[in-house]
Amino acid sequence: MKAFVRGLLARANYERPKIQRKWEWKESAGFGCVTSPPPPEKGLENLTVADVLLTKDTDGGEVDTWISCRTNDTVHDAVKNMAKHNIGSLVVLRPGDHQCIAGIVTERDYMKKIIGAGRSSKITKVGEVMTDESKLVTVSSGTNIIKAMQ
Predict the structure, then answer these.
(1) In which domain, by residue range, is 142 found?
(2) Which of 43, 108, 110, 121 sits 20 to 30 Å CA-CA off 13?
(3) Beta strand pairing call for 89-93 and 101-106
(4) CATH number, position 71
(5) Average pLDDT over all residues of the chain
(6) Which among 106, 92, 16, 12 has a CA at the least distance from the CA of 51?
(7) Where in the chain does DSSP place strands (E)?
């Protein structure tokens, strides 16, 4: 989480070079065209949760795809899934075909409740170590990122 916040702050404090013109002339195959400059960077105060989630798409895949596991999966499989996707947490769904959120499992859950407690990740189920959905604080995608971090 600290690295996430540092990344957001770095992004908010990043200043792009000032653009002198409102347009630019480009030549392509003997034809010229007028192009607009890229949109300005949003400051942290104008950044929403949706903006941050859209920047998470680094593999060219679907932005709105959930990477999840089920309560009856082993912690070992969940951690392998996190490592494969280079993420630190998974949404935990209840068993079955419906998309009912049961909670979240994080790297910290693994470290404290498996490694720290001397348990086996190959036999412990995610539902035994996850944070239950009743304890989660959630926000909508339109929430300001500063408000979400609070």
Answers:
(1) 66-149
(2) 108
(3) antiparallel
(4) 3.90.1280.20
(5) 78
(6) 12
(7) 24-28, 31-35, 68-70, 89-93, 101-106, 131-132
